[in-house]
Amino acid sequence: MKPRSCYSSRKCLAGASSLAAILLAASVTARAAPAPATATAAPLPAQLSQLLHRFARAHPSFPGVVLAVTTPKLTWSGAAGVADRATRKPLGATAGFGIASVTKTFTAAAILRLFEDGKLSLDDPIAKDLSPATAAILRRGGYDVDAIHVRNLLQHTSGLYDYAGDPAYQTFVVGHPHHRWTRGEQVRFAMTHGKPLFQPGTGFHYSDTGYVLLGELLERQTRHSLAAAYRTLLDFDRLGLDHTYLETLEPTPTQAKPRAHQYLDATDTPGFDPSFDLYGGGGLVSTVDDITRFYRVLLGGHVFKKPATLGTMLGKPRSTRPGDLGMGIFAESIGPETCWHHDGFWGTTVVHCPRIGVTFAITVNQADNFDSAVHELDAAVLRLVGRT
Question: How would residue 57 be classed by pLDDT, with cut points 50, 70 and 90?
Fold first, then answer.
């Protein structure tokens, strides 16, 4: 289970949502193999390819691994392993996949676009922006919807019980993979299976519940679907996010890449209804190239109109005050670098390290026991690209 007060620690985010708790029962202890001394003589793309293939051999429980890296001198992507265990089809670097909780960075950025356009205040009580029906559900669950503010949802400081972290939810999802969840069902589940965790703004607890409420807020403020809200507020076309879309809530773009299969241990999941993680806390399908591009333009100041908005999103990473937390993004030290990141349930991570101008994304298309191994791969990638 995720620690309740871990702030920006990557251990808080072992998966795309707290659903990972049932499947991530043990940490991977195997480490990405260090590059042999002779590899330093090879061009960087060759070294990265060698690293991926060594990683795939060292972690046979992962069907495959995909990596995209962008630096001031290099744009590269590669893959190793298979996209489908049954057919043994090779995994390609352009494969699409569900990015799960990496979606939260998109959700937070879209909310902050509304904020900088004056459409809402981060200090608005959520009762002002949610539907009366949703506010009533929260009140019946014991929550003061006038005391929870929009910024609390963004920072995971609302005290809202996390429906996705509840073992009963996890068990039901695995046992009923074709169930079509609604946002209202998930909020009601949180209300009936848990109680308020703390007074808003006084603590941290990672909560998909808060982010599905933000998804509703986006729909109500824009008067569009959640998919249209992402596309218009974040301007997918301008950013070149040609392979990114909200699964089942909008048509699959004609240019979208074929999907890699994603696994829960040995279970192949193409038939799972994605609604278990869809309405703001997860749900986007993308590629490693697209999410690398998004993080790079976001943190490069090209998503928001005002530089101060990005500062609001990033918070104060050296502070331990809940009110100074980032919004939909977390700071983390990787080796000597201070980087920004988010992880996702299906073995996905995206990282941006501003000092050296490096951005990369990884997926291993496997939700089981990926956390430690993928974070070791993070460090190995930075060791390689940091030398150039």
Answer: very high
Nearest to 78 by CA among 66, 90, 86: 66
* Total count of domains within the chain: 1
Q: State the CB neighbour count (10 A cutoff) for residue 16.
A: 28
Per the CB < 8 A criterion, the answer to whether 283 and 249 are in contact is yes
DSSP string, 351-371: EEETTTTEEEEEE-SB-SS-H
Q: How many CB atoms lie within 10 A of CB 242?
A: 17
pLDDT tens-place string over residues 248-277: 999 999 999 999 999 988 889 988 999 999
In this prediction the pTM is 0.90
Assess whether pLDDT exceeds 60 at residue 32: no
CATH number at residue 200: 3.40.710.10
Residue 342 domain flag: yes
**Share in percent of the chain as helix, strand, coil (round to 5):** 40, 15, 45
Whether 1 is covered by a domain: the verdict is no
User: Is 373 domain-assigned?
Assistant: yes
Measuring CA to CA, how many Å separate 108 from each of 16, 115, 262, 379?
15, 10, 25, 26
Structure tokens at 20: 């990972």
Domain that includes residue 188, residue range: 10-385
Asked whether residue 4 is domain-assigned, the answer is: no
What residues are paired with 75 via a beta bridge? 70
- In angstroms, the Cα distances linking 62 to 47, 135, 283 are 21, 42, 22
Closest-CA residue to 154 (of 339, 343, 332, 330): 330
Which helix (H) or strand (E) segment holds residue 350: the answer is strand 348-353
Alpha-carbon span 320 to 340, nearest angstrom: 16
CA-to-CA dists, residue 232 to 120, 122, 303, angstroms: 17, 20, 12
